[in-house]
Amino acid sequence: MPKESVVLSITSLLGWLKFSIFAVFYTNFIGQSIFKGDPNAAENSTALQHYNAGVRYGSWDLALCTLATTLYSIIVRQLSFYCNAKYVNAVGFLLISIATVVMAFLDNVVPVICLASMQGVGFASIFTLPFAILDSYREYFVVNLSNIICYFKLERRDKRWFLRDYGIDISILINSSLLCFIIISFAGRVLIAVTHSPRSAIVLSAGWL
């Protein structure tokens, strides 16, 4: 497996871990840390009502993330044409990680929801840019679009990529999204149980990047 593909796969996995942790634990974070609710409180209690209200707000915010994902996905591919896709990916993740850390330590619902909506940019990036980067690798190592060269010259150029099936690398990137859910199903719950704070999961989601 080419080292470029290994690095890209690891980066994709970390990116999926970041956004999966956020998506899974965000509504719980809003309900407990922002609205000061308790999911284990007695039925019809104020604490449980606050928690349910926080979950509803969090669910609407995830819908805003979906809207941001849709809008950013329209321009991210064009943006990668003018700037290197790797830099667009890295800068986007860095800004979102900073926003996530800031959000984790706020108690006001309005700035938290605004910052959390930015996660949509990250979702659009992780769905598109790793595949754009993979495509640029294959173009660089296998196909030279500006100068068509023969099979033997291509083979001498880089056998690691020329003899490698495109579908294998795509499947690895896709499977990284599935592997991350197995990881967070253990790590996220253990972290919250140890720290007794849903904020820790949000901080962890920023820490992956």
UniProtKB/TrEMBL annotation:
It is a multi-pass membrane protein. GO terms for cellular component: membrane. GO terms for molecular function: sucrose:proton symporter activity. It comes from the Eukaryota. It is found in: Membrane. Keywords: Membrane, Transmembrane, Transmembrane helix, Transport. The chain crosses the membrane at residues 6-26, 57-75, 87-106, 113-131, 166-188. The lineage of its organism: Eukaryota, Metazoa, Placozoa, Uniplacotomia, Trichoplacea. Its main location: membrane. The keyword Magnesium does not apply. This is Uncharacterized protein. It comes from Trichoplax adhaerens.
